[in-house]
Write a structure and sequence with these properties.
Layout (H helix, E strand, L loop, with lengths): L8 E7 L21 H8 L2 E3 L2 E2 L4 H10 L3 H4 L20 H7 L3 E7 L17 E5 L23 E6 L3 E7 L2 H24 L4 E6 L21 H22 L6 E7 L25 H4 L3 E4 L8 E3 L3 E2 H11 L16 H5 L10 E6 L2 E7 L2 E6 L10 E9 L20 H17 L11
Parallel strand pairs: 1-8, 1-9, 2-11, 3-12, 4-5, 4-8
Antiparallel strand pairs: 2-10, 5-6, 6-7, 9-10, 13-14, 14-15, 15-16
Helix pairs in contact: 2-8, 5-6
Keywords: Calcium, Hydrolase, Metal-binding, Signal
Organism: Aspergillus pseudoustus
Protein name: Alkaline phosphatase-like protein
C-alpha cells in the first residue's frame, strides 16, 4: 500500500453492460427489481457523474480506458471472435505500463478483451498478474449450443498469468462457471490486496466485473433472491461483489489514500431477456444515442474529492487514463496524441470548477456517427435502435440533450440552431487533422 498522498492507491472496478438507469443512485435500483445499497452508499461517499461518456461497446471502451486514446486511433474498434487478430498493438502504452514505470504493483482480475494471444494478455501489458477471461461471456454458451464442437470454434477458458512467465488456462468457461466467476474474481482481488498492504506497496487494481453481460446468470446464493428474475438477481450480486471489494479496502486500513472508481464500459444490452435500461436516455450500446454514451461513474477519494456530490459536466472515458496518471504523479506518453484530458481539479472541486472537456467525436468502427458538444448532439447517421439505421443523413439531426428539453433525442432543431455547427466543426477539424498525422492500424477482420 501507499500512505504517500502524492502516490495514492487505485482501485478501478468496471461493470459490463451496466446501463445508466439500473442503479438506485441513478433512479433505478428497486424500481428495476433489485436494490443496490452498496453502490448507492459509495455514491454518497464521493462524486457521481451524470454525464460520463464511453465508447460504443466492450472493446472500444476498454482500449480507450487503457490508453487514453479513442479506438479510431488504436484499431480496437469492435469485439472480434477468437482466432482473429485483435487487441492492443505492442506500440500502445497502457495505464498499467505507465503506473508500473512509477513503481506501482498492478493486477487485473476480470474481463480483458484487449488481446488473446501471447504478447497481448494483461500480464504482457503492464500487469504483474492477471486472472479472468481474455474475451467475453457469451462464449460460455458454446459448450451447450447445438452443433458446437471445439474443432470449429475454440473452447473458452478462464485464464491466469504472471508477467514474464506467460499465461495459461485454468478451466473451461462454461455456463456453470459463468455463475461463479464474479465470486472467483473477488477472492483473487482480496488476496492480492492483502499482500500489497502487507508489503507496503502502492497498487493499481483493475477489476472488470463480468456482470451484467449476457448470459446474465447469478451465483446460486443470489438465484431467486429478488423474485424478479435472473437479471435482477445478478444486479443484487453485482452490488454485493462491489461491496466486498469496498469493505476489504476499508478493513485493510487503506481507505483514506485509495482512489476508488466504479463505472460501466457501455450502455445496456438490447437483447431480451437480458435487456437493460438507460433510464431517461434513449438507446443501447452499439448506437450513438445518449443511452449508449452515458453510463454510471462514481469516484471516491476521502479528503480530496467531496462526498455526496453530483455533476452533469462532460467527462469521457479517455480522461480516466490521463487523470489517474496525473493523480499518481506518473508520466503521460508524449510521443502520440492522447485524447484524455486531466480532470483532477474538476474532480476535487466539482461545484466550483467546470470540466475542461466541452465535447468529443463518437465513432462506431470507422464511421463518425455523432459529435457531442456541451448540451448539444449532432447525428450524421441515424440509428436510434441497433440494426434500425436509416443511413447517412443528408442534413444531420441536432438535439439538445438536457433532460427537461429532449433527453430522448426526438426533435431535430438544427434549422433553428445552425450556430452550433461552428464549435462542432472546429472540434471535428482539429480531430481530423490529428488522425491524419496518427493513422490507425487496419481493421482486424480485414487482416486475414
Amino acid at each position: 500500500m501507499s500512505s504517500d498522498p502524492n502516490r495514492p492507491n487505485i482501485v478501478l472496478v468496471l461493470a459490463d453492460n451496466l446501463g445508466w438507469g439500473e442503479l438506485g443512485c441513478y433512479g433505478g435500483g428497486i424500481l428495476r427489481g433489485a436494490a443496490t445499497p452498496r453502490i448507492d452508499e459509495l455514491a454518497t461517499e464521493g462524486l457521481l457523474l451524470h454525464n460520463f461518456s464511453v465508447e460504443s461497446d466492450c472493446v472500444p471502451t476498454r482500449s480507450a480506458l487503457m490508453t487514453g486514446r479513442h479506438p479510431i486511433r488504436t484499431g480496437c474498434r469492435q469485439s472480434v471472435p477468437a482466432g482473429f487478430p485483435q487487441g492492443l498493438t505492442e506500440w500502445e502504452e497502457t495505464l498499467a505500463e505507465c503506473l508500473k514505470e512509477n513503481d506501482y504493483a498492478t493486477a487485473h482480475h476480470g474481463k480483458w478483451h484487449l488481446g488473446d494471444i501471447p504478447g497481448r494478455y494483461p500480464s504482457d501489458r503492464g500487469f504483474d498478474t492477471w486472472f479472468g477471461i481474455p474475451r467475453t461471456s457469451d462464449e460460455t454458451q458454446f459448450t451447450s449450443a447445438i452443433g458446437y464442437t471445439p474443432k470449429v470454434a475454440e473452447l473458452p477458458y478462464i485464464m491466469k498469468g504472471t508477467a514474464g512467465q506467460g499465461s495459461e488456462n485454468v478451466c473451461i468457461y462454461d455456463l456453470d462457471k459463468r455463475r461463479l466467476i464474479d465470486e472467483m474474481l473477488v477472492e483473487q482481488t482480496k488476496d492480492w490486496l492483502t499482500k500489497r498492504v502487507e508489503e507496503q506497496e502502492a497498487f493499481f487494481l483493475y477489476h472488470p466485473l463480468v456482470h451484467l453481460h449476457f448470459p446474465t446468470l447469478p451465483h446460486k446464493d443470489f438465484a431467486g433472491t429478488t423474485g424478479q428474475g435472473e437479471f435482477a438477481d445478478s444486479m443484487a450480486e453485482m452490488d454485493y461483489r462491489l461491496g466486498q471489494i469496498i469493505d476489504h479496502v476499508d478493513n485493510l486500513g487503506v481507505r483514506e489514500n485509495t482512489i476508488f472508481i466504479f463505472a460501466s464500459d457501455n450502455g445496456p444490452e438490447f437483447r431480451p431477456p437480458y435487456r437493460g435500461t438507460a433510464g431517461p436516455w434513449s438507446g443501447t450500446y452499439h448506437t450513438a444515442m445518449e443511452g449508449s454514451l452515458r453510463v454510471p461513474f462514481i469516484i471516491r477519494w476521502p479528503g480530496r474529492i467531496p462526498a455526496s456530490t453530483t455533476s452533469n459536466q462532460i467527462v469521457h472515458v479517455t480522461d480516466i487514463f490521463t487523470t489517474i496518471l496525473s493523480m499518481t504523479g506518473s508520466r503521460v506518453p508524449s510521443d502520440r496524441p492522447i485524447d484524455g484530458v486531466d480532470q483532477t481539479r474538476f474532480f476535487e472541486k466539482p461545484t466550483e470548477i467546470k470540466s475542461p472537456r466541452t465535447g468529443f467525436l463518437f465513432y462506431i468502427k470507422e464511421e463518425l456517427r455523432a459529435i457531442k458538444w456541451k448540451d448539444w448532439k449532432l447525428h450524421y447517421i441515424w440509428e436510434p435502435k441497433v440494426n434500425k439505421s436509416s443511413g447517412r443523413l443528408e442534413s444531420p439531426y441536432l438535439f439538445n440533450t438536457v433532460r427537461v428539453r429532449d433527453p430522448k433525442e426526438e426533435t431535430d432543431i438544427l434549422a433553428y440552431n445552425t450556430w452550433v455547427l461552428q464549435p462542432m466543426m472546429k472540434l471535428k477539424g482539429e480531430f481530423d487533422k490529428s488522425l491524419k498525422n496518427d493513422p490507425a492500424p487496419p481493421d482486424p477482420l480485414k487482416q486475414l
